[in-house]
Amino acid sequence: MRKYVSKAFCYLLFSTIFITNHILAQTQKFDSTTIANLKKQIIPLVSAKEKQVQEMVDMVFSFGELGFQETETSKYLISVLEKNGFVIEKGIAGIPTAWMARWGSGSPVIALGSDIDCIPKASQKPGVAYRDPIVEGAPGHGEGHNSGQAVIIFAAIAAKEIMLKNNISGTLVIWPGVAEELVGTKAWYIRDGYFKNVDACIFTHVSGDFSCDYGDNGGNGLVSVEFSFEGDAAHAAGAPWRGKSALDAVELMDVGWNFKREHLKPTQRSHYVITDGGDQPNVVPSKASVWYYFRERTYEDIQSMYDAGIKIAKGAAMMSDTKMNYQILGTAWPGHFNKALAKVMHANIKQVGMPEWSEADQQLARATQKLMEAPKMDQSGRPIDGLRSVIDTVKGSVPYSWGGGSDDIADISWNVPTIVLRYPANIPGLKGHHWGDAIAMATPIAHKGSLAGAKATALTLIDLFTNPTILVDAKDYFKNVQTKDVHYIPFITKNDPPAIYLNKATMDKFRPEMKKFYYDPSKYKTYLEQLGIVYPTITKKNTQ
């Protein structure tokens, strides 16, 4: 990559130097024995939150809200944080369901984040290893984003108690990944300055593993953009020659892009849906739109795809004699994560260890893997057979990647030293973005995995608040390795609003029926109990 320097990066560079020089002076120093004792104290505090973890995982699962429409989820999470002394700034970056919660004062400032949105058409009863939606056609947590806030919130609450008891200074910041499936918010958080004074960020994401790696993880970045065409309606049979079809423009663009694929690198991923194809066949469509994700491994290649998409759209408009405009709906950089922070987290993962899976847990996992036709081996050559019991070694940058998924946590990672804790709350070997990935997400598998993730996060918070050397090393890696030759350039500008209207119609359609199934912890111990599900339900003959 060429060296790009933005104003935001210059600010970050000078502020990093300033903060690094003050970390050792301002952060309290604790000897290794004291730190070990604090860690012994915090594990029982997190364990005592086991019931609250289960309730939060199940509650958010029951809401099943799509990106930008996470109103019930945000209201619920904010209420829990306010009861525990956090001060909330609501509606950050112009996003109604986004917020930042703060507790404490002074340095260091540690941010904790996790996503909250779900997947379209992924409604599924938990603990049931066959297709059985709670509400037919409704969205559901077919990724597992219902579990991550429990990981960070109860880790932070335990850390808060330790900090108060031991007079430890520092600031905890908790935030939600709104509309992650649309990669629709984190670049906006960065643009609007919400991470300027953060020293480090711990992000958490559901997984079948218990891990925390560093460097380039092999994922792609992307630009999500909708192209809209405007033509002129006419009677499709009586006078079609008088119409200018916007749908023709969409189809011409799609044909043009599919020819373009032959001349793109094998690392690219590009996909689209027609969001508006007209109203009815007998009317020449005056308006039509198509929504693209352009994914690649580097900033330059993403920008090149984006530019090519715009050219093809302009060409389609010329051929169909229509007008074209476009809007960025989301964006993510390729990820890069911090070595110093990852090694600390990994040591704490090993201290916590994998959850103890029951035979029922393993039965559900293997039945789901069979249902989803999981491969025998994962991409690392490890066998896929039930839930994992072994913690892998910490890994650095991949030597090469053919490309893959994206996550807008990467935009934060290029501005603040950041790691991603992957905690073992779902079943290995599933498809992703599918109702099958929701099967485990309000069961003991998700409860145990989330509690384990909270323990590892809490231990890492103790390290960060008591050992200033870690943050100095993290900032050194960030400055002298990660951003030495590659510097963050946002794809969005101040003129690009967040696409907060997305998914509104879908949630308006399904929410009334979904409300009937919201979890009520005052009446039921678990969501499984509320739904009357025998755990695990493997075949239909076992249902009640």
TrEMBL record:
Segment forming the signal sequence: 1-25
Pfam families documented for this protein: M20_dimer
Record's keyword terms, sorted: Signal
TM regions (residue ranges): none
Sequence ranges assigned to domain Peptidase M20 dimerisation in this UniProt record: 220-303
InterPro entries assigned: Bact_exopeptidase_dim_dom, Peptidase_M20/M20A_hydrolases, Peptidase_M20_dimer
Name of the protein in its database record: Peptidase dimerization domain-containing protein
Organism: Parasediminibacterium paludis
Taxonomic path: Bacteria, Pseudomonadati, Bacteroidota, Chitinophagia, Chitinophagales
